[in-house]
């Protein structure tokens, strides 16, 4: 009888310990609560703005009914800004690819103090407010009227702002020791610099190039502060038009403009998350190590 009672008490204690969550479970629940609260704090205003662009009357809410009228009006009035933003983003991407990829490769390979100073100067436009960078461009190049009034002036500003993102993403990949080993092996076989750069550097730097390209496109389409200072009535991009609609038109039209902005930028953000998070190649390297370990475990008896 005593033995049965002795064995039953620990089982009851174990059941009580299972029912009571430990400190780690409370910590995890707190983390989930904070994360979900932050998501709701960020997502709810966006959802309400989109809803305002699809309702007949924002102040009456959903009861007024849904309509695509505001989207049609925005497209009729501002489709030129949409295409101009795409043109500016494409031109910015082309220039940053042409200049940023070689610059990132050189900075990753060079170990001199001069290269570090150049890298700091490249990152300087990120540290400065966009208005300050735009003012500097206006002071230096504002006297050239044809250049000042053209779209090229905005493209230059966007290149100055986005080039560091391309250089940093490419440099992170080119700094890999495996890439250096491949280049040295190709050089020992007689490959020239251009052959090594085209056949070895560019294919291996593809994750960084893709991540940098997506960042450049997203930042160029959404840049407002710098563009607001550099634009003219004939060179109004998407973010500047968005500010105008919120300032001078109905809130429904401004919200519909926001929907149009999301339609353009969200695919780029999703692509950046899907492709650009592995700019250094660490995830692919981890997958390769995992595959190698699995293959070794299968081959070993």
TrEMBL record:
Q: Where are the transmembrane segments?
A: 25-51, 88-108, 120-144, 150-176, 197-221, 256-277
Instruction: List UniProt keywords, sorted A-Z.
Output: Cell inner membrane, Cell membrane, Membrane, Transmembrane, Transmembrane helix, Transport
Q: How does it sit in the membrane?
A: Multi-pass membrane protein
SUPFAM superfamilies under this entry? MetI-like
Q: Where primarily located?
A: membrane
Return the protein name: ABC transporter permease
Which PROSITE patterns does the annotation name?
ABC_TM1
> Where does the UniProt annotation locate this protein?
Cell inner membrane; Cell membrane
InterPro entries annotated for this entry? MetI-like, MetI-like_sf
Q: Taxonomic lineage per UniProt?
A: Bacteria, Pseudomonadati, Pseudomonadota, Betaproteobacteria, Burkholderiales
Ranges of residues in domain ABC transmembrane type-1: 82-272
Gene3D superfamilies the UniProt entry points to: MetI-like
